Structures are given as structure tokens and as C-alpha cells.
Amino acid sequence: MSIGNAEEPVKRRPVSKKPLAAAKPPGDAVLPVRSDERPFIIGIGASAGGLEALRLLLPSLPKNLGLTYVVVQHLSPTYRSMMAQLLGRETTMLVRDIEDGMLPEANTVYITPPNRNLTLQAGHFRLVEPTKESMPKPSVNRFFASLAEEIGESTIGIILSGTGSDGAAGIHAIKAAGGFTFSQDPETAKYSGMPQSAIDTGSVDWILPPETMGAEISLIVLNRGLIPVATQAASAPATLKTLLGKVRSRTKVDFSQYKEPTLWRRIERRMAANHVSTLQDYLKVVDDTPVELDRLCKDILISVTAFFRDSDAFARLEKVIGDILANKQPGDDIRIWTAGCATGEEAYSLAILFSERLGASFDQYRLQIFATDIDLDAMALARRGVFAASSLAHMDRNRIRTHFTPHGDRYEINKNLRDVVIFARQDLVQDPPFLRLDLISCRNVLIYFQSELQARLLSVFHYALNPGAYLFLGKSEGIFQQEALFGVVDKEGRLYRRHGIAARLPLPRTEMPLAAAGLNQHQRPAKPTTPLGFENILLEAAGRYFIPTSILVNSKFEVRHIHGDASRLLNVSPGKPAFDLISLIRRELRTEVQVLMRQVQVKQTVAHGRPRHIKALDPNRGIRLSVHPVLAPGNEALFMVCIEWIAASAGKNSTDDSNNVTDKELEDELAATREHLQTLVEELETSNEEMQALNEEIQASNEEMQASNEELEASNEELQSTNEELATVNEELQIKTAETQELNIELECIQNSVDYPLMVLDQNSALQRFNSAAARLFRLGEPQIGRHLRDLALPDMPDLVTDSQKVIDTQNALDRQIVNANRRHYALHIAPLLRTSQRSAGAILLFADNTNLYEIERSARETQVRLLAVMNNSVSLMAVKDASGRYQFVNPKFEQTFGFAAGWVIGKTDLQLFPDAVSKIFRESELEAMRLRQEIEGEETLPLTSGNHHFLAVRFPLFDHDGAITGLCFQATDISARKRAEESLRLAAMVFDRASEGVLVTDTEQRILTVNDAFTTLTGFTRQEVIGKKPSLLRSEKTPPELYVEMWDRVNRLGVWQGEIWNRRKNGETFLEWLSINTVKDKSGKIVNYVGMFSDITKVRESQQRVEYLATHDELTGLPNRALFNDRLHLALARAERSRESIGVVFIDLDNFKVVNDTLGHATGDKLLKQAAMRLLDCVRAEDTVARLGGDEFVVLLGTADRHKATLTAERLLSALSTSYQFDEHECFISASIGLSMFPEDAADASALMRNADSAMYRAKDHGKNAFRFFTADLAHQATRRLALETGLRRAIENGELFIHYQPQVNLENQRVVGAEALLRWQYNGEVVDPVVFIPVAEQSSLIVSIDEWVLGEVCRQIDQWNKAGLPAVRISVNISARHFRKEGMAADLMQIVNAHRVSPQQLCIEITEGVLMDFERAQRMLAELVAFGLVISIDDFGTGFSSLSYLKRFPIHELKIARSFVDGISSNADDRAIGSAIIALARHLGMSVVAEGVELTDQHVELDASGCHNGQGYLYSRPLPPDDFAQWLRERNLP
């Protein structure tokens, strides 16, 4: 809440030396002293620089007024505070560290520990662990706020030097609670941040240097009990009303309806600040210093406000805001009034709530927040919208980031919120309100007003609010004065809602209780219409019809209220207007009213007057007055004057006479006067009786004082006798004193003759005496006699209290060295001072200045330490021997070089430490140095275990005072590294001269200093030709000048440059070189040389360009390779997609190219590929791309081509490729298979286009070759099927889907089983896939290798199982694919599988196709290894592939298998019979066996047997069988 802002601080006000006002106020203003006064607690906040300020403050603080001091200084959380010890030297009060739960004690200084916040709760100190937020610890704000809340007016807050703004909010809280506030003058503070922040709040009472604050605090404390509480009557001369009138006249602020206790607390505070104790004296102060009225006004208008003060209430308010916004539409007005806004925090809090509630639609509503206050200074701060960080400490961090902009340690409200808040000055008591409001927030304002003003303001709020609008009050406020006007929305949140009935604005109260007493009822301003309950309606009706006209007045006849029509009785007299009842009522009734009032005041009962008939009022009726005492809730005495109209007595009416007063009226007035006189007589008699009683009391007191006087005279006689005795004793004492003085003078002379400072302490460590040396050193004088050693503050000396007390307690002398702040050294001797009874009476302190001796000793020690440090840290070996050759000292380098442990050498000789050769060298050199009695120097090579080491050694003898040699010093430097470096330099020079790269060295002016031989070789310039010249003589025109600028810029900035550059040889030839330039710098970092190294990379660049070309082109044909083709394909697809055009991919495979390559040789094959590439280029457009993918595969990219153009291109390609090729004497014919796929019909991406074209090409091959095919949906289905099969095959082995059947092979002659062929089967998705389907897929995807190895392993496992079961041994044939044969190490893999199952190789036969034999060298090597291992080799489907009789002769083949296609017609077709017979005859002549496949008919069996075929295999004998069925069939078939 706020009802104004804090007062402006009194700038640098000097401490007043005026004595306190009279302790007892005058009799007419006696005020009882309050009984609830609590002792002051003084909080002292400081930060950086605070210790210096505290040392100035503490000595000046009052030490015996029962005050408690608490120091809250920011400290490091990990620092162990020494504040208690440091500050204990500055004061005689007890200095203690605070512990949790400790009770404050009087005349004690408490220190807050680090990393803990301090609060005062229920009279106890409480230490609280701080939160993790980055706030100063301990928090001054938090402690000051707890003091303000706990003890209020008994708080004094002091802010000393420090950075930041901590303590500013706490100072404001203390001022608001009625306490006193001090701040260090920023000009005297080491850091002015905290003092200035406190001053900026406007809540600081005194701005003083620390050393003067104590005097002001003493005056405040001493004056406190002398300022009385206001209980004086309102009619006294120096009244509260008088003071408030003066305030109103100067400041235009009316405090007359504020609660008097609040006003008195503020007035008493100002009285204490001005050092006066009575209201009369304070009135004199304000008369002499009118500005004090401004200060009092601002003191009353203290701001107590904060952002979201009482967070629970604001949380409840958020729901009400939601209800307000629920009835609003974008563009509507939202009007809020914050009454008593102070510095604006509450108004901005409401703006933040509305902003958060509206969110992004905030700007769509016309939000207006009227923030008003009576204090212009407060509103000036509010308008700025800038707040200290401490003001926002309790707010949510996210809310601060959203609505505030940080500026250093202050935060500014965002502009969008500032624009909706309108600040204006308004006096709630007098000024009209804002209208059509949705919400009024008047928090903690009404509590300062009297009930009457509270009720009127609630009526004003009711008038200003819209029907159903809301009122938001403080937690200590309510609507009990006007409960009929508002309904309760949230009692805990103090939220109320206006009842929806009409209202009129109540008129403000003025200083004239009755504006015009003579006005008729209808002429007076109408009272505001307020809603009445039935009870009020009843009471109003009863009053209107039954209660006579009545006037409510106070004891001064001031009219408070009028009931009924009193216009005929009251009128305003001419002249200066007066509005008390005596002045307003008719002259005829004035005396009677005064008499009746006096009777009521004396008797406290109802007084009735006589019936009166005043014809001027009413000719027919008379009146009778009566006065009733009224009980009032306040201190004001009220009386009700009732006017009763009565009927006049018959016959008593007087005749109307307009000019004369009737006798009856004169009689009535005379009777009234008599009554008045009688009353005065009675009062006078009462006063006489009281005076008589007082006179008797005075006489009794006089008699008592007379008796006391007689007693005092007797006592005086006794004192005179005593005085005579004392005079005699005094003479004797003076004699003794004179003797003592003489002894004391002698003792002082003896003390002063001692040149050492001497001090004598008593048993309490208080100074008793000192000599002149001590006075000079410690600046002691007579005022210091009797002071405790701790309070002497000996300049620059350490603490001596502990040592002195130890000597006094133990009676043992103590000696030690001490050093003062000026680095003077003293030998301190403390001896006990003993009485004759050997009891300690104190201590004697003697200080002997031995600084010079200490300096000499220190210098010697330092010299020794330096010498030892030099020797220990020297890079040279150093040693000292005695005359007998034993080592007395060696440095660490000596021990490290020779590998000795630390200290092990001392006391030993060279013979004990080194080999004979080394010790001999040492001994000879030492004897020479001792013989010559001078140093000798030379290089020595020592044969050590780690090899020969070279040393530069120096030896010289050591002499004593008599010139005798006492020892020898040895110093050596290991120059082994230098020797190696010299050797390295020689080697480097050789490398420099013989390096293959050119090297030149220049100075900083780029003049060539030297070059190597490679430089001459590469450039043609000799060394003599280039020395002294610049490298620019090599420059060629191919290198742009910008490159040289960049090169030297980089060299000078980074010290290095590398790059390619074109230079010119001596013969004018240009060459590309790789150049590296480096800088050579001296120890200071300055460039002294440039070194350039270069090599000729002309040929390297040509090779690089060749490599780059080969990376994207086919080396043989010069066509783009796969990488470049894919890049162009992606570009073409992107272009076609943008332009919505079609492109085509043509996949070309040369038919029977392998035949040409194998028969005519690879060279001919290469020529054919080149010619084919040329023909392809001739058949396509320039924008099309022809690429070779590898082998005999080509691909063409047709840009912007539809299906028709692609067809024409494919026809041209087939025609061009099918014509004859000429190679010297050879002529060849080949064809091509072409597949085409189109974008976007067939695919949308590059990989799919290539894959589809490849599928179409294979379709062309399947249909007889020399053709082209477009990709179709059927091919897509086949591709999908193929992909599914390939995917399934990859998991077939691990899923156990593959299995083997065995088809027997029988001897055609005797029908006995000679072997079997292992046939692979695949169970996939519930069906068995034909090998003809999945074997080609496996071969094309490289899965065939793993399948072959699995089949061989499974067959070996089965053979091993059959062998163990005793089955007759038969040979099992296993097929190995041609693709498997192309794998390196295939033979070794097969043999490893066989060996792993421990199966005899003779039980296996490896079946291969004729395609395996096409790669002659590989096949010959592989087959030789397999046959050597013991395996049998068989050629499957012999005659269907590329057959060569020379291959049969050159390869180790054991068996030929006749293909099924020949066996099918061998009994009926002459050609098949001839081929079969030829194969059988060929095998017989080559020593090979023959197996016929696919024998299904008996005729075929007979014909084969007749032709000499050895074995047969087919359904005629048995279909393929599972392993168990085959084993059973074999047993049955081979039974004897």
C-alpha cells in the first residue's frame, strides 16, 4: 500500500549539541509515558570497505544505554571471518559471533557469520541458509525487514560503505515502521554504492560520517523516554489540531481524519529527530523552521509498497482478472484505478497480470490503469519505471526477464506496460474519483483513516465502479463500514464486488460542519442515497416521526449533526461567520443552552429546560430544550440538544407587538439568567471548597518541611564535628602525599632515563605508568592512565593483551620478538609486577628496539639463502671439498648428473664415489689448483656409465684469514649438448648444401645471404650471382602481383607461408614450384631472417591433372566413368523435373565380347572397346552422355528424349555396333543387348532408372541378344520378385530354410551305387523354391559363395554322420559356382571346411562348369591345389558352354558329366547320340570317367551303356532323396 512517498533525507545534517528539553512537560500538557517501549536494536549493514567504516563507527557508539548492535557485512561464503576479533579492538563492549536462537543482549555487538542470512523472530536471532540465487550474503535487506516487522519503532538502521544496493529496501522498511535510519556520507565512503542506494530511496534520516553517528544515536535514545504520548485535550493551546492545521496550510494535505495513534507516532518521531520532548516545543520548531512541516508531512506519507505484495492475494486476484476479461471483447476498454500507488509497484504488478493473462492479444484491448497518489515525488519515481534489483529479489526470474530490461543493477519496466499506466496526483479526501471502472485497488490505505472517512471512501469507490465491478483491499482492511454496498468475492484475498444499485457521489467533508444552518431542508445538499437494510429503514422512519428536532454537538458546541428541520432555530449572524451552536441558535435560547450544557457536563445526566413561547418562531406553539449526554466511540464528548414543540397555554398568548419585547419574554430571560448565575455560584463554591482543601494540604506539607529542616540542622552539627576530624587526617595525608610525590618523581626520573619504552599495567591490564620513551613511541599522555591495554590502540603494534594477561595470571616472565606495522622489530620483555606478599599486582612491559641487529642478521641470512639458492638452482655442477678431499657441499645438479641420492655424497672422497679414471682426473686437477693457489679452467671428458660426458670445469682453492688453504671449490658446466650441437651444426650444413630442395636465406630487407647447391640446380643461378640480390630476380609474369602482396602479408603476420608459385629459371624457362617461407626471430621476437625452401612440382602438377581426369573418365576409351555419369544423371533429373521433360537411360552390353577377348587376346578386346565407344558417340547427340561402366557395359543418357526418340537411338546403336570390326588381319562381328528406361514413366530417381535399364537389358539378352527392350511393369514385378528372393536368401542359412537332397549315381553295368550328387533346396514362405529360380539370384548377388561353403560343410557333416553309422562309403558331388572360383583363397577355404569335419577328400567330388576354365591361370592354380588335396574334379553339363579340348588336356579333370539336353534324345536323335558318343569317347581316351545326367528311360540307359558310359544319374534310378531316405535306399541297394 501507499499513501505517499518517503521524505527527502536531511542532507549531511550536523549532530545537534543542544541539550535535551525539560524532562518533565509543563503541567498543562502532562502526557503519560508509554509502558510498551522496547530496547533499541541497531542494525549495521556494510560490504566492501565496511571494515574501515566500522572501525570509525564503533568507538563513537554509546556503550551503556542498553543498546544491541548487529553487524551484517557481506562476506565470502568460504571465508573464516575474523570480524569479531578485529572489531573487538575498537570498543570495550562485548563482540560476539551470532549463533542460531541467541537472545539479543544489551551493550553487545553481534557479528553475522558468513554464508548465512540473519532474521529476528520472536525476540531470537535466527540463522537461515540462503538460497542458491546470486544475492549478497548475509542479506542486509532481509535482516532490516525482520527488525522492522518484529520491533518496529525500536529499530535503528545504519548503512555503511559497500557496493551494490543491498540494504536500500531494508532502510525503507525501517522508516515505514517508524524506526530511525542513518547512511554514511557517500563522500566519506570507500565504496558509495550501498549508501547512495539507501539515500535514493528517500528514507534516510541522517547522512553522516561514521564517527559522528554515535552522538546522534545517543540523543535519540536518551530523548525517547521523555517524549509523552498524546493524551491532551483537544482544547489545549498546543493541540494536534493546531499542528495538523499548520501542516494543511503549508502542504495542502489534510490529515485531520487520519487515525490519531498513527499521527502521534510520526509526530513523536519528528520530535525525537529535532531533540524536543513536548508538543509546545515542537510547535516552536515548526514555527521557526517551516520546512519541518514538509518533513512531517512526508514522514506521515510513508510508502509501504512492493511488487506483488502479499502474493497469495494477487494469486486470488488472477481469477478475478479472468472474470473481468471474460466479459470483454477485443477493442473494449478495461479501466483500473490504483488509489495510493506510491512508487508504482502495485500498478505495474496489475499491468503484468493483465499482460500475462491476455498474452499475444494484449495490444487488442484498451487497458488503462489510473495510478494516483498525493505525493508528487513518489509519482516521479513511478513514472520513471526504474527499480533497484533488491525490489525485484522476491519475483520469479522468468517474470523479470519477460517484463523488465536490465540496466546495470537496476531494472526498467518494459514500454508496453509503462504506456498503459497513467499517473496523476489525487487527494482521496477531496478530489473526485475516476468513473466507469472495472477494478479498484486500494490496498493498505484505509487502515490509516478514521471510520467516518473509511465509510465515505467506500461510498466513493462504490460510485466509481461499474455495476458488478471489483474492489481489491489490503489484508488488514474490510468493508464493515459499508457492508450494504459490496458483496464478498474472496474474504481471504479481500476481494469484493459492487452491488448493482444506483449510487450518488458523496460530498467531501469540509472544515464547516454545516454549510449554512439557515437553509431549508430542500435547499441543503442532498445526502447520498445509500442502500438501507430493513432495520435502517425502520430506524429512519421512527426518527422522522417520533424523534424531535435534535442537534448533536461536542463540548465546544461544534455542530456534528442535525436531525429534523432546525432552520427556524438556527441562523447565521452578520460579520465573520461562526458555525458553533451558540453562534447559530437564536439569541433567546443561547443562555439556556449554555446552562443546560453545563449541568449535563457536571452531573452527566439529562437536563431539561423550561417551556418557552417565542411568538417570532410560532405564535401557536412553544418549545422546550433538553440536553442529553451521548456515548461516543472516540475520545470526543458529544451531547444531543433536543427541541420539543409544545402547545401554548390558553389565554397566555401575547398580543402581537412588532417593536417591543413582551413582559413574558423578559421574565423568561431573567429567569434563565438567574439559573445561569445560580450555576456559576455553585461552581464558585465548589472551587472555593477545593481551594480550601488544597490550602490545608499545603499547610500540612509546610509543617512536615519545618520538621525536616530541624533534622537537617542537627545533621549539620554532626557533619561539622566530622569535618574537624577529617581536617586533622588530611594534614597527615598531605605529608604522606608529599613524600609519595617525591618518590614518584624519583621513579619517573629513573624510568625516563631508560631509553627503552616501559609500561606498567595493573592486574586488570589497565595502564598505571609509562616512561617518556613509551610516550614518544605510543603517543601516550595522562588521559590514557587507567585505560585498558586493549583500549589504548597502541599505534602499529600487535595485540599485547593476551601475553600480558598470561604473565599476570602465571607470574612468569615472557620474552618474544614483535614487529609493528612500520616493520620495526622489538624484543618484548614482560615481567610480573609483584607485591610484598608475592601476589601479582600487574605486569611490566619493556620494549627494546633491535631493528638494526635484526636487519643485519636478516641481511646475512638472506645473503646465505640467495647464495644457496643460486648454487642449488644453478645449471652448473658445484661442489666444495675440504683440504683432505672430502665433500662438504654439492648442489642438486651435481647429484643429478652423476646419479647420486640427495645428501649421499657429503663426507665422501672421489675414490669412494667415482671410478678410478674419473677420480684420477679430479685429483690431478685439484692438486694443480692448490699448487698454483689460483683457479684453473679447462675441458674434461669423463668416462661415465652413460657414456662420455664433456665438461668445462673450473677449480679454485679456498683460504682462511691466515692465507692457509682450507678447501677447494669445483664448478663445471656440462657441454656435452654443446658438443652434440656443434656436430649437429656441421651435419646441418652438409644437409643444407646437399638437400634436393632449393634453399635461400635473406635478411629483413629480402637480400639473399646464402643459397644451397639445389638452388643452383633448379634455377641455373650460381651462389655468386644471387648473393646480395632479392628473390624477385626469379619472378615470372605468370604469378599475379596480388599473390605476392598476400604472401608477404601472411609471412609478416603469421611467420609462415606455403603455396604454389610460377618462377623463372636463368634460361628464361618458367616452372611451377612449391614454396615455403618461414621467418627466423631473435629472443625478443623480432624477425631477423627469412628462409625459403622450394621444389619443382611442374611434373607433379601434370600427374595430378592426369589423376583428376582418370577419376572421372575411363582410361581406355576416354568416356565418362560411372561417377561422372551418375553426377550428370542427377543433374539431368533435376532439370527434367523442373521443366517436366522426359529423359532416357540406355544400358548397353556387348554380346560375346568375352569370346573375342579370350580368343584374340586382351589387346584386341581393348581395340574393339575403343571402336565401340567411337560408334556410340557417333550415334547420339552432343547433349547426350555416353559412359563406360566397366568391362563390356556402356550406358547412354538421353536428355530431353521421349520414347520415340529413344527407340530411334536404340536402333541406331544396334546397327552401328553390329557392323564388322577390323583388327589388322582379323575381322570380328559382335552385337549388343540394349535396355531402356524412361523418366518419369519408369522411375523417379537415378538408381531406379539404372536398375530398370539393366533389367530391360537382361530381358533383351534372354530373348536372343542383338535387340533392345524397354522396361515394363512385368520387369518391375520380376525385379521385385528377385529382390524378395535375394533378401530371403540372405537370411535363409541362419533361419534354417536351406536343406540338401541326394540323387544317387549308379554304375550302368552292374546297377551298384557309386556316388550321389548333393542338390540344394530352399523352403521359403511355405513353398519350395526351384533351384533354377534362386541359384541365378544367388550368383548375381555374391550370396553363392556363402551358400557353396554352407553346402560343402553340410555335406561333410552328413558324410561324417554316415561314416559313423557304418553306411557304405560313396562319393558325394558338390557344385561350386564359377563366381566362387573367382574369389581369392577359394581352394584354401574349401580345404579348411573339409578338414574341419575330418572327412576324407576322396569321398568328395567338386563339380564345376566350363565357365570356370575361361580364366585359365586362376583355374589351373585352384584346381591344382584341390587335386593335390585329394578332391575329385568333375565338369558339369559338358558341351553346353565354351568347350576347348586343349583345356581338358591342360587341367586336372577326373570326370565329365553329359548334360540332360543331350541325354533326352540319345535314344531317338542321331545328333544327340553322336554328341554323347563323342563325349564318351573323348573321356575314355583322356582317362576320365563319364556320368550321364537326367536318365529317365530304359532306352536311354541301354544306349548309354552300349556307348561305354560308366555311370548314370536320373529318375530312372531314384529321384533326389532326403539324407535319411538316401541312407535307407543305399543300404537296401547295396545289400549282397
Automatic annotation (TrEMBL):
Residue intervals of the PAC domain: 936-987, 1057-1109
GO biological process entries: chemotaxis
EC identifiers of the protein: 3.1.4.52
Keyword Signal among UniProt keywords: no
Tree of life domain: Bacteria
Region (Disordered): 1-29, 703-723
Domain EAL: 1282-1534
Domain CheR-type methyltransferase: 247-480
Residue ranges of every copy of the PAS domain listed in the record: 863-939, 984-1029
GGDEF domain span: 1141-1273
One Gene Ontology MF term: cyclic-guanylate-specific phosphodiesterase activity
Active site, renumbered: 47, 74, 166
Residues of the CheB-type methylesterase domain: 32-217
PANTHER family: BIOFILM ARCHITECTURE MAINTENANCE PROTEIN MBAA, DIGUANYLATE CYCLASE DGCP
Protein's name in the database: Cyclic di-GMP phosphodiesterase Gmr
Taxonomic source organism: Candidatus Accumulibacter cognatus
Native organism taxonomy: Bacteria, Pseudomonadati, Pseudomonadota, Betaproteobacteria, Candidatus Accumulibacter
